[in-house]
Design brief:
260 residues, mainly alpha, 10 helices, 0% strand
Length: 260
C-alpha cells in the first residue's frame, strides 16, 4: 500500500469513527432530555416506584447523561479538527475514549444499585447497553479496539457482580449465582471478538476498494492520453490474455511538412 493510499484509508476510518461518536452523542442527548423531563415534570400520577425521585436519583442520572452528551460532542469536534487538518491521532486517546464510553453503563448500574438494589441493577435491561457500545466499535475498523471494548465491558460487569454479590438479599439462586454474572461477561467478551472480526473484514474490503481505484487512476493516467477510452475500459474490465488478440486493421501514416 502506497503512503498516499494509507493516509486516505486512515482518514476514512476516522470519518467512520466520527459517525460512531455522532450516534452516541444523539443517544446521550436523547437520554439526557428524557431524564431532564422526568426531573422537571410532576410525575406523581406515573405508576411504579421506578419513576419516583425518592427511589431513583433522577437528578443525578440527568446530570450524568448531560456530562456524557457534552463529552461526545467534544470528541466529535476534536475528530472533526483532526480530519480537517489531516493529522494522525495517537492510539492512546482512542483506547482512552473506548474505556470511558464503555464505562457509561457501568456507572449507571452503580447509580441504580444504590437506589433499587444490585440484584435489580445488574439484571435489568441496562446491562444490555454494553452491546450497543461493542457493536458501534465496529465502525472503528480496528480489531484491537473492538476486542478492548468487549474486554472492558466484560471485566467491569464481572467486577460489579463480584463486588455486589455479598450484598444481595434475594433468595433467588440465579440472581445470586456468580456463574450467571460470569456467563453474561463471557458473552460480552465474545461479542467484542466478533465485532473485531467484522471490523477487520470491512477494513480489508475498504483497502481493496482503494487499491482498485488507485490502479484504475494509474492506468487511465498512463494510457488515457494515447489510446481511445474504449481501449482503456477494456484494459480495466477484461483480463489481458498472453496470446494477444488478432484483428484486421487499417493504418494511416500522416506527416505535416515542417512540423518535426
Amino acid at each position: 500500500m502506497t503512503p498516499a493510499v494509507d493516509d486516505d484509508l486512515y482518514f476514512e476510518i476516522l470519518k467512520s469513527e466520527r459517525v460512531r461518536v455522532r450516534a452516541l452523542a444523539i443517544l446521550m442527548g436523547s437520554l439526557f432530555t428524557v431524564s431532564l423531563a422526568l426531573m422537571l415534570l410532576k410525575h406523581d400520577w406515573m405508576p411504579g416506584a421506578i419513576l419516583i425521585e425518592q427511589s431513583v436519583p433522577v437528578r443525578t442520572i440527568a446530570a450524568f447523561y448531560g456530562a456524557a452528551f457534552a463529552y461526545e460532542l467534544l470528541a466529535h469536534t476534536a475528530l472533526g479538527i483532526v480530519i480537517a487538518k489531516r493529522r494522525r491521532l495517537p492510539e492512546a486517546p482512542r483506547y482512552g475514549n473506548a474505556f470511558i464510553e464503555t464505562s457509561i453503563p457501568t456507572c449507571m448500574m452503580v447509580l441504580l444499585a444504590g437506589a433499587v438494589g444490585p440484584e435489580i441493577a445488574l439484571n435489568a435491561p441496562l446491562a444490555m447497553a454494553y452491546f450497543l457500545f461493542i457493536a458501534l466499535s465496529t465502525l472503528r475498523m480496528t480489531a484491537a479496539l473492538s476486542i478492548f471494548t468487549g474486554c472492558v465491558a466484560a471485566f467491569e460487569y464481572a467486577g460489579l457482580g463480584l463486588y455486589y454479590f455479598g450484598w444481595s438479599s434475594t433468595s433467588d439462586p440465579y440472581v445470586r449465582s456468580v456463574w450467571s454474572i460470569f456467563s453474561k461477561a463471557g458473552v460480552l467478551l465474545i461479542a467484542g471478538l466478533v465485532c473485531g472480526f467484522v471490523g477487520t473484514q470491512i477494513r480489508r474490503r475498504l483497502v481493496a476498494s482503494l487499491a482498485t481505484v488507485t490502479e484504475r487512476n494509474r492506468i487511465v493516467g498512463m494510457f488515457g492520453q494515447y489510446v481511445s477510452p474504449a481501449v482503456v475500459d477494456q484494459l480495466l474490465t477484461k483480463p489481458v490474455e498472453s496470446t494477444g488478440e488478432v484483428r484486421y486493421v487499417t493504418i494511416m501514416f500522416l506527416d505535416i511538412r515542417g512540423f518535426t
